């Protein structure tokens, strides 16, 4: 692979949500701050949405890592469950012993007893649900009923929903309007702009061991922004492939041509063509360099 060629000690653009590579960009930091403030203040429902592959799962992992005591967390990465299945999954995450053939009301009672005991001990229980847009309406309504578990002074269970924009559409359903009304804090993740893309890529390269800041040619950032539209997962895919292309040619920098080849090799970016304005800049620079080369060649020949 290209690790030694570029002075790296690990792959910088893996697709797994590795918190070591978390880049403290404004959109992700603001979302994390919203979560921490809302949870510290005891809010019942918090929602974080964003387009596909904008880093929601990584943000979810950061929250799990950064929540201090006395918070106790339960994490559901795949919430496509029935209402009964949701209660069983929550009980299992909290370490509650239950019978697989127990009535749903019995499981709810066990969860309630656990939450009451946790509150007496000064603990706060947080249920974190990733890919929440996959939840059936019946299960979402059952989720609302879980937040009915409370004392006179506090919610016994706080819930954080991470989801794609389809979650907002789902929440518009009249049958779960009571749940929608209970969401007191929400935040929408945005794609990265050109400056943030450069910061993001250099950050991951630096964590992976690279000490140079000139690995990306200036035009490559423009190409990366054009092809990926600022989506972190696509940035990872294209930059990894561009590094492979540069390594294969023995080159020490990623140029726009390497990213173009990477885009042509990727389903989600294959149909995006560089705009004529971008090509014109490249052609102008190419003509300028050729003219300067011809001028100095003729000057030296005199």
UniProtKB/TrEMBL annotation:
The lineage of its organism: Bacteria, Pseudomonadati, Pseudomonadota, Gammaproteobacteria, Methylococcales. The keyword Hydrolase does not apply. This is AAA family ATPase. Keywords: Membrane, Transmembrane, Transmembrane helix. The keyword 4Fe-4S does not apply. It comes from Methylomonas methanica. InterPro entries: AAA_22 (IPR049945), ExeA_AAA_ATPase_DNA-bind (IPR052026), P-loop_NTPase (IPR027417). One of its GO terms (molecular function) is ATP hydrolysis activity. Residues 41-171 form the ORC1/DEAH AAA+ ATPase domain. The chain crosses the membrane at residues 281-301.
